[in-house]
Amino acid sequence: xxxxxxxxxxxxxxxxxxxxxxxxxxxxxxxxxxVPADAPTISAAVSLAQPGDLVLVAxxxxxxxxxxxxxxxxxxxxxxxxxxxxxxLRQPNGVVVTAPGVAVENLTVRNNTQNGVLVTGxxxxxxxxxxxxxxxxxxxxxxxLRSFLVSHxxxxxxxxxxxxxxxxxxxxxxxxxxxxSADSGIYVGQCKPCRIVVRDNIAELNAVGYEGTNASGDMxxxxxxxxxxxxxxxxxxxxxxxxxxxxxxxxxGNLIAANQxxxxxxxxxxxxxIGVGIDGGSDNQVVRxxxxxxxxxxxxxxxxxxxxxNGNQIVDNTFTAxxxxxxWTFPTATQGRGNCLRGNDxxxxxxxxxxxxxxxxxxxxxxxxTWASPKPPRGIPFTEVAAPAAQPGFPNTTTGATAVPAVPxxxxxxxxxxxxxxxxxxxxxxxxxxxx
Length: 436
What we know:
With 436 residues, this protein is mainly β. It has one domain: Pectate Lyase C-like (3 Solenoid), CATH 2.160.20. It is 6% helix and 33% strand. The protein has five helices and 31 strands. The chain has helices at residues 2-7, 15-20, 42-48, 123-126, 354-357; strands at residues 32-35, 54-57, 60-62, 66-68, 74-77, 83-86, 93-97, 102-110, 115-120, 145-156, 161-166, 168-174, 177-179, 184-191, 196-199, 202-204, 208-215, 219-222, 225-227, 231-236, 249-252, 255-257, 274-279, 285-287, 290-292, 297-302, 313-315, 318-320, 326-328, 340-342, 349-350. The strands form two sheets. It has a 20-stranded parallel β-sheet that branches. The longest helix is centred in the N-terminal third of the chain and has 7 residues, at 42-48. Residues 157-326 form the Periplasmic copper-binding protein NosD beta helix domain.
């Protein structure tokens, strides 16, 4: 209870000191603050917390936008399915993290007009009004939030992104589920070097499963399942964000399949039926992914306006039953160089014979091709996307706060296998788990 919490504060500090977090405690005297037993709301519990504390939330529906602006706080639900932060379409964000070393774990965030969980060093983004597109922060200088963890979170029916790391570094998004995002289920934007790991997540029924915009340097997207979106995964450059161009991500060991689901929100640019899109991104490694049944194309390489894609390597992937397995297309004069293929299991490319003409290493200008693309169907409002199935919960909710490292351990791509074809059977939500 609150009285017990305040008793930990050194004598001479009153109740107001404890509530504001201004009191001091003996070394190692971290506590668990329970909602609603010790504080009536999640936000009230966060205001009481000090670095190293755990805010543990009981089952219930919480109608609040939670801002975690204190370092090294763990926000954890007792039950992933029944601890629900519901924005009721009245607030931009469910959880906003603006302090380093914060962990958000084991809860559901839904029905926000912009984002389910936002982790950011941008003051404009944290206010919920960064720009018309949700990520243009104008002349605001780039400021990074460093060190974060989002784990075992379900983000569904949010108006922009489910889980959004923007102007952030040194973090992990793992074991989470995103659906019904009107833009992307999981989004990483404006970081260089990122040192961010996106692993063992499921994204379905979104406009885009995962998007990495201007996300460069030690950016790892590994062992995820991006199935049943409109577009599975994109890594791209965009003038609306800073730190152009996008470079140096590792897309390894993911299952990327059947990304032409009609019952999804329709993204403004109309992407449809594509497994992987590299749009003005360079020096990306796309390795040992299983890319299956994407009606338009398994993988597309193209340019963003005046930004060419250069030096992307497509290696040891398995392509099956796509409209075209690999397509390189440059509708403007901007073309890339050094994009290459090696060791892939594929049947069709556009232009034809890319596996031979663009074998790694390749230094010449990338050729351009065309292919017949299916017409995308109309989407549905994000508020009408199907409710998610139950997802695995955090293994032990009563353990203390999670120690989030200053820099995460980065995976070894060589240890991440190709996902098994059995993961495609029946559309079951089976995880493609990454090693390393």
